Amino acid sequence: MLEARALRKSFGRTTALEGVSLSIGEGEIVAITGPSGSGKSTLLHCLAGIIRPEAGEVTFAGQRVDSLGDADRTRLRRESFGIVFQHGELVPELSAMENVALPLLFGGHARQESLRSAMEALERLGVADCADQLPGELSGGQSQRVAVARALVASPKAVFADEPTGALDSLAGELVMKELVRTAAAARMALVIVTHDNRVASYADREIVLRDGRVAG
Ligand code: ADP
Ligand code: ADP
Predict the structure, then answer these.
(1) Where is 31: in which H helix or E strand?
(2) How far is the CA of 16 from the centre of ligand 1 (A)?
(3) Using CA atoms in the order 138, 173, 74, 94, what is the torsion angle rounded to 10 degrees?
(4) Could you tell me the pTM of the whole model?
(5) Are 53 and 7 in contact (CB under 8 A)?
(6) In what helix (H) or strand (E) does residue 4 lie, and over which residues does it extend?
(7) CA of 186 to the centre of ligand 2 (A)
(8) Mean pLDDT along residues 162-188
(9) DSSP class of 157
(10) What is the dihedral of CA 59, 61, 67, 71, to 10 degrees?
């Protein structure tokens, strides 16, 4: 469903990825691990169509992602992907519930229905209490859970998450992982998680280890 072939990406003189190939099936949960600076975030960003590799190909459901123009890549992300960034990235002017409703509103769903689904997603992630708060009023852990709710709410075909439990204590981290895995299984979505937490990696069907921008195992 999601394939990368011979990806290369550098930043100035730093080669972040070199010759990375992988294939991720529908409903598969994959953890990307490796030391800091090994290229995990860069790989995730290439797979999710956020950045473009200099060489190689990314294909999602038979469609080339890397060669799409910016507008088409944005549309693909909105329609098919859920993305959890490392640092929340919620819209500061909107409440937690409105932030979670955004993917549904973009998808053309009615406002009341979207807000109701958003509320349910917040409940599943244990942050229903935060529904009416603005992102600036949330703790790091709360924002992260709201961001996960937003990534899952529209049942995307693939979810990409960069350290989704990084700001959470172990109990909250477990709740987030269980909800990610449960939703992925129910919707047959591919789940790609960057993590350096072994407990998170243990939820994955498969682990891809990066070292110096290459797949090490
Ligand atoms: P990881 O997620 O494994 O910590 P990254 O993908 O963030 O690794 O980074 C891989 C390498 O690329 C590192 O050397 C990092 O400093 C560099 N890098 C990543 N993003 C940028 C950027 N936007 N500009 C310059 N260098 C970057
Ligand atoms: P990680 O924990 O994955 O290494 P960082 O917190 O180091 O991530 O990086 C956060 C963001 O900064 C990422 O979007 C990455 O692309 C960018 N980045 C990483 N290294 C550099 C760098 N050397 N110069 C500029 N941007 C960077």
Answers:
(1) strand 29-33
(2) 6
(3) -20
(4) 0.89
(5) yes
(6) strand 2-11
(7) 33
(8) 91
(9) S
(10) -140
